[in-house]
Amino acid sequence: MSSYQSINPANNQLLKSWPSHDAAAVSQALETADRLFHSSWSKGDIAPRLQVLARLADLIESRVDELAAIASKEMGKLIGQSRGEVKICAQIARYYADHAAEILKPQPYPSELGEAWVEYHPIGVLVAVEPWNFPYYQLMRVLAPNLALGNPVLAKHANIVPHCADVFAKLVIEAGAPEGAWTNLFISSDQVAELIADDRVQGVALTGSERAGSAVAQQAGKYLKKSTLELGGNDVFVVLDDADIDEAVRQGAQARLSNCGQVCTAAKRFILHEKIASAFIDKFSAALKAARLGDPLDEQTTLGPLSSKDARDRLAKQVDEAVQNGATLLIGGKPVEGVGCYFQPTILTDIRPDNPAYYEEFFGPVAQIYVVGDDNAAVALANDSHYGLGGSVWTQDIARGRRLASAIETGMVFINSQSDTSAELPFGGVKRSGYGRELSDLGIKEFANQKLVVVAG
Ligand SMILES: NC(=O)C1=CN([C@@H]2O[C@H](COP(=O)(O)OP(=O)(O)OC[C@H]3O[C@@H](n4cnc5c(N)ncnc54)[C@H](O)[C@@H]3O)[C@@H](O)[C@H]2O)C=CC1
Ligand SMILES: CCCCCC(=O)O
């Protein structure tokens, strides 16, 4: 039985099983990608590649509803959020279509040795290993910069979103990319490891769990291949005593419930100044309780299902263990009875450092609340984490917000906004949230040969 299956998490119905790719198909895909890398497509003028990205952006924009429905049926994202994800993908494709040539032009390096500059060249075939939570966005973050640069990509998507993987690959071809530029492979972890070991593969990008990241990075390290990792997070949502509480509650509820909480940069640890904690908790609890659970395709639904039964069962076990280890369950805490992988909006408080939950990411609609007396305590708590991905600070004193943003040990901090993403801004983290950056001018150079050329003076 294929391990790639489209199952609707709103009703557990099997939509389609997808055949896996065997060794011969993988070998052919690698050969085609490597041949493309050694062709004028990858090494020649950038313009034809950017034209493909512009056409891809147009194609995606013309098919938002169709693409969004596929994602919502396959992984349970609310239809409006799926439309938003599809639109961000078009934005990313268009950003690199419009800006890659400027970003990748040779950069002069004034030197006493003579005229010096850095050129940006593709390095070869890459492997992309991606998760189900943003089934198109995660692929586009790798495709767009590397297609602009000239690196062919072999993509291994999460096993529960094969339809998204397949339709994305077809869009890239329809936009005019040659065979080999982006190849979707329904393959196993072992087949990924074999690809990474092959001399024709020069790098690997992964978004997903620490477990997957560690396995893939070990293999990449063993074979001296460049890797980037975008892993989990336990992002803070710091509400200071001078914050606009109603706006913080509104965005805090969105930041915890969006995509049913299955977002690496979702607000997960709510750190509240003691002066406003009670007011925030009352309003925040009401906002989470007001969530309308239902079919993700129904525009009225505000909280869909988790992506799978496994994800739902993992979360339920995690919440139970947090309570067994001393946490207080303020609201929710249980799977919703009936069909589908639904989970109650949940708030946990009184989580002490000796509770394993204190250091754990809850990948679902589960908020942890902590109360502190001052800014230093907020920063100390924020940094007491194995993760370092994103975070947000809420205050009407921007200088104060900037001080906390600089002190919080993550890759991204937003002041008076929930975490977000846009093609022109770098995305990534530190510590166990991974390394490297995606998007922006930083992302397109992660897998570039940044070659120094010097003309002796
Ligand atoms: N940073 C992010 O955006 C995301 C983080 N996650 C984290 O991952 C956790 C579990 O979600 P999953 O989808 O199960 O993530 P996962 O890490 O199991 O899967 C992510 C991708 O890695 C692949 N993979 C897993 N193990 C692998 C291995 N040994 N070798 C090669 N490829 C491998 C999977 O097939 C999938 O394509 C979540 O609870 C969350 O903490 C999940 C989704 C997105
Ligand atoms: C809109 C935010 C995107 C976050 C992508 C992630 O969970 O890895």
UniProtKB/TrEMBL annotation:
Domain named Aldehyde dehydrogenase: residues: 4-453
Pfam families named in the record: Aldedh
Gene3D superfamilies linked to this entry: Aldehyde Dehydrogenase, Chain A, domain 1, Aldehyde Dehydrogenase, Chain A, domain 2
Record keyword Oxidoreductase present: yes
This protein's UniProt keywords: NADP, Oxidoreductase
Transmembrane helix is among the record's keywords: no
Active-site residues per Swiss-Prot or TrEMBL entry: 230
InterPro entries reported in the protein's UniProt record: Ald_DH/histidinol_DH, Ald_DH_C, Ald_DH_CS_CYS, Ald_DH_CS_GLU, Ald_DH_N, Aldehyde_DH_dom, ALDH_GabD1-like, GABD/Sad-like
PROSITE patterns referenced in this protein's UniProt entry, alphabetically: ALDEHYDE_DEHYDR_CYS, ALDEHYDE_DEHYDR_GLU
Family per record: Belongs to the aldehyde dehydrogenase family.
Protein name: Succinate-semialdehyde dehydrogenase
Record organism: Pantoea septica
